TrEMBL record:
Superkingdom field: Bacteria
Domain Helicase C-terminal: from-to ranges: 354-553
Protein's recorded name: DEAD/DEAH box helicase
Recorded coiled-coil stretches: none
InterPro entries: DEAD/DEAH_box_helicase_dom (IPR011545), Hel308_SKI2-like (IPR050474), Helicase_ATP-bd (IPR014001), Helicase_C-like (IPR001650), P-loop_NTPase (IPR027417)
Pfam families associated with the record: DEAD
GO MF terms held by the record: helicase activity
Cited PANTHER family: DNA POLYMERASE THETA, PUTATIVE (AFU_ORTHOLOGUE AFUA_1G05260)-RELATED, DNA-DIRECTED DNA POLYMERASE
Keyword Translocase: no
Domain Helicase ATP-binding: start-end pairs: 148-294
Gene3D superfamilies: P-loop containing nucleotide triphosphate hydrolases
Family annotation (SMART domains): DEXDc (SM00487), HELICc (SM00490)
Keywords recorded for this protein, A-Z: ATP-binding, Helicase, Hydrolase, Nucleotide-binding
Length: 834
């Protein structure tokens, strides 16, 4: 029967009557999108709804996706005109286990009720019961149900699903249940970015609160020296988790690696590999690996060589994707549905062909994301759109947001006035408080247009009805831009459409003929299998690995951290008698001669060590030669008191920072990006770690730029000042400087111990990475607050009030002790508990 339906569906796709009907539907869909009246012939509706049902029955994702596109367009265009469509859609969604869309039907059409045959009613009730589990309050999709079943069988699971398939919610719900039912357990959740820490931590709290368990668990986002609660979630980047692992004995019951394709990331993939290895030394957790592409499903075969994974894989999302090419031609816009003959030509209504005009024409009245490759491009497109929004009644929520930008960041930052028009931009070098604020405003529907960089590809949950793509590329510093990885472009397009709000998301491919890369959306059934960066780099650039093992790889080279981390991992494996695992790994593709040469190079490096291997491991991104030099220098210092790291609040902080960092640069341990003077970085670092506000730091940066401009009449760009400050903080201070100071602290402590001296040196790197030195402010950041929100709350509270949990913070928010808190800060706290 299924083969017959597939043949029938194939014939339907090729028929002229089908093409005529879909073209009429598509035209009506575009008219509806731009706010015009849309009608469609009743006979065509009958044909299309019948064919859509056939497509859903074919066991082929191509047909299923086409059926979902048809059904979503029919619901959008004529759901109100032909209620029969809604009844049929309800039946189709039930048969395919798509219960989120059934819930959306109930939300959109609450006045409608359907009468089906006894058999159909019974079948639908059975499917709903089958996809409902006692522990969760909502019916699951088929994919979610099988994922839940595999998890509850204590199996190690690799799950592959597109963005918006709901996999993360199921995994977090499962972990919450297991932690609550335990006598005590630790769960590690590794996320790729700091921005995702807050998002996942908030989601955990939200799920726990729904089940009245929020007081029974602890969510930890920064390493601690004074121990952890019995039931703790460690929601951390690989850098933070590695530090927590090195600080003491930790054994984990659960390991969840989110966005796990980052094991192949060029810059941080090796560090993720190292962190997993370290965690597995003393733990036997249930391992859960989540990724958006099946190309990465075997990337962990050697990392977890003794585990057998159950794989739960789907390419289907409850939110359909409608891809459209948009081409300005003369006075018109030509819009074509991708890989079909569906096409419509509409008047532009504007001059030229600017992306802002296209986004306004097709996106007005909807939520929209405009992807841009660079931060300044995001600012420019947001400004262009805001300038063209001439009549707009700014709601109080956006006025509050604009006021927050002016009060806490800078009054000339263009984001403030953009917000007053319902427009924003979102990128990496944006203060975390603003990122959280913008994401909340988008979700609440107050921001209609947001321009984004590839932060969308890093798991940030920022969905919208429409996504506009124009020449997407990956910026490479001073080099030529490169093609975005398929997994990134899929993650970006996955943000089109929001589950439980849209049946489909629109992806507008703008002026595709001008794109440098034109194969992003080609069907490719033979995706290349990905392997971890650790093995890929050894296979493809063995000479650089040899240079790193010899300590001569250029310290200012773009990939220095990657190759020195690889070298350190190889040395660590040799010291532990595990090098054979790498040399015999199936992912390694070297000749016998190259394997022998690699083994000799690792042994030579190991024999040259002057620091213990476990000490080397504490700073995995810094080469052992550099650590040897630094160790020798520290060992020969006559008075180590002059070189200890002070508390962040010390008056000597800046002077010591400059003195130590200059030595770290000299020995190749600290390699700044090269954009800033050492004195400037140390000034910013001192202000940052001592809790000075971003507005003060940014204002001083603008004053400095004004004094040092090349021409007297040049205007200082406050947006650039904000970006520069956040970039130096995130890249040079929180990452490079913090890593170098961690290495210095470990070696200094080692020398102090060897000399049996009674000297204390502070772990300054931990304070710098967090951005605070006040204990309560650190507690607030650990709960999940942005630094600026934590600073404001901390300043409002009396010194003797402790805040050790989100629950406690919410209690304080309800009392009168936080009166005067900015409304945006208040909303950030409340958004964590939704």
């Amino acid at each position: 029967m299924s083969e017959f339906i597939k043949k029938l569906s194939t014939r339907a796709l090729a028929s002229e009557r089908y093409k005529e009907a879909t073209n009429e539907l598509f035209r009506s869909y575009i008219y509806k999108t731009i706010g015009m009246e849309a009608e469609i012939n009743r006979e065509h509706v009958k044909q299309l709804i019948t064919i859509a049902q056939y497509f859903y029955k074919v066991n082929d994702s191509k047909f299923r996706k086409e059926g979902a596109a048809l059904l979503s367009m029919l619901l959008d265009v004529c759901g109100n005109s032909y209620p029969e469509i809604i009844a049929i859609a309800n039946r189709v969604f039930s048969s395919s286990g798509d219960f989120p869309n059934i819930k959306l039907i109930e939300k959109n059409y609450p006045e409608l009720s359907f009468k089906y045959s006894f058999y159909s009613e019974a079948e639908m009730d059975f499917r709903k019961e089958l996809n409902t589990v006692d522990e969760l309050s909502f019916p699951l999709t088929d994919f979610q149900r099988t994922l839940w079943e595999s998890l509850t069988l204590d199996e190690d699971v690799i799950t592959v699903a597109p963005t918006s398939a709901g996999k993360t919610h199921i995994i977090l719900s499962y972990l919450i249940r297991r932690m609550i039912d335990s006598d005590g357990a630790f769960a590690a959740i590794i996320v790729p970015t700091r921005a995702l820490i807050s998002e996942v931590a908030n989601k955990l709290y939200e799920i726990a609160k729904e089940q009245n368990y929020e007081k029974e668990i602890e969510i930890c986002t920064v390493p601690q020296d004074d121990g952890y609660a019995d039931k703790t979630f460690f929601v951390m980047t690989q850098e933070r988790l590695l530090e927590a692992l090195q600080a003491g004995d930790l054994s984990f019951n659960y390991l969840f690696i989110d966005e796990a394709h980052n094991i192949t990331d060029e810059s941080r993939g090796v560090l993720l590999h190292l962190t997993i290895d370290k965690l597995m030394e003393d733990s036997f957790p249930q391992v859960i690996i989540s990724m958006p592409s099946a190309s990465y499903q075997d990337s962990f075969s050697t990392v977890f060589e003794d585990l057998e994974f159950t794989k739960e894989i789907t390419s289907i999302s409850p939110v359909a994707k409608i891809l459209m090419e948009v081409k300005p031609v003369g006075r018109n816009l030509v819009i074509e549905r991708f890989n079909t003959q569906d096409s419509i030509t509409i008047p532009k209504g504007f001059k030229d062909k600017h992306l802002s005009d296209i986004a306004l024409k097709l996106g007005r009245g909807h939520s929209n994301i405009i992807y841009r490759n660079q931060t300044d491009h995001c600012e420019n497109i947001a400004q262009n759109i805001a300038d063209k929004v001439t009549e707009y009644d700014t709601p109080n929520e956006l006025e509050e947001a604009a006021n927050y930008v002016e009060e806490f960041i800078h009054d000339r930052f263009s984001l403030a006035n953009n917000l007053r028009k319902g427009v924003a931009f979102h990128y990496g070098p944006l203060p975390s408080s603003l990122r959280i604020m913008i994401e909340n405003l988008v979700k609440e529907g107050f921001i209609q247009f947001v321009a984004c960089t590839s932060t969308l590809a890093e798991g940030v949950n920022l969905p919208a009805k429409n996504l506009f793509l124009y020449k997407p590329m990956q910026s490479k510093g001073m080099g030529a831009p490169e093609r975005l990885d398929d997994v990134k472009i899929n993650n970006i397009t996955g943000r089109a459409g929001r589950m439980l709000e849209h049946f489909a998301g629109n992806i507008f491919i703008v002026e595709p003929d001008e794109w440098q890369v034109k194969d992003y959306f080609d069907d490719n059934d033979n995706d290349e299998e990905k392997i971890p960066t650790y093995f890929k780099a050894i296979n493809e650039d063995l000479s650089s690995v040899f240079q790193a093992l010899a300590g001569v790889y250029a310290h200012d080279a773009e990939n220095q951290y990657k190759f020195y981390t690889i070298a350190n991992k190889l040395i660590k494996e040799l010291a532990e008698g595990k090098l054979y695992k790498t040399l015999e790994a199936t992912e390694l593709d070297l000749s016998l001669e190259d394997i022998d040469a690699l083994e000799r190079a690792v042994k030579n490096a190991h024999s040259s060590l002057k620091v213990a291997p476990f000490t080397l491991e504490a700073s995995p991104t810094i080469g052992y030669i550099q650590q040897n030099k630094l160790f020798n220098f520290i060992s020969n210092i006559d008075n180590l008191n002059d070189w200890t790291l002070p508390h962040p609040k010390s008056k000597e902080l800046y002077n010591v920072l400059v003195k130590v960092c200059e030595k770290l640069v000299e020995f190749g341990v600290f390699t700044p990006t090269g954009e800033y003077y050492m004195s400037y970085m140390c000034v910013i670092a001192a202000k940052w770690v001592q809790g000075e506000s971003l507005k003060e730091i940014i204002s001083e940066q603008i004053e400095w730029m004004d004094k040092n401009k090349k021409k007297k009449d040049d205007e200082v760009n406050p947006n650039k000042a904000v970006r520069d400050v956040i970039k130096v903080i995130n890249n040079d201070i929180r990452f490079r400087m913090a890593n170098a100071l961690r290495c210095y602290q470990v070696l200094l402590t080692n020398v102090i111990s060897l000399k049996q001296l009674d000297i204390t040196s502070i772990k300054l790197h931990s304070f710098i990475e967090i951005g605070a030195s006040d204990d309560r402010m650190i507690e607030l950041i650990n709960i999940g607050l942005s630094r600026e929100a934590a600073k404001e709350v901390n300043e409002k509270l009396a010194y003797n009030i402790d805040v050790d949990s989100l629950h406690r913070l919410l209690e304080l928010l309800k009392s009168d002790v936080l009166v005067g808190l900015h409304p945006i800060t208040r909303k950030e706290i409340l958004s964590m508990s939704k």
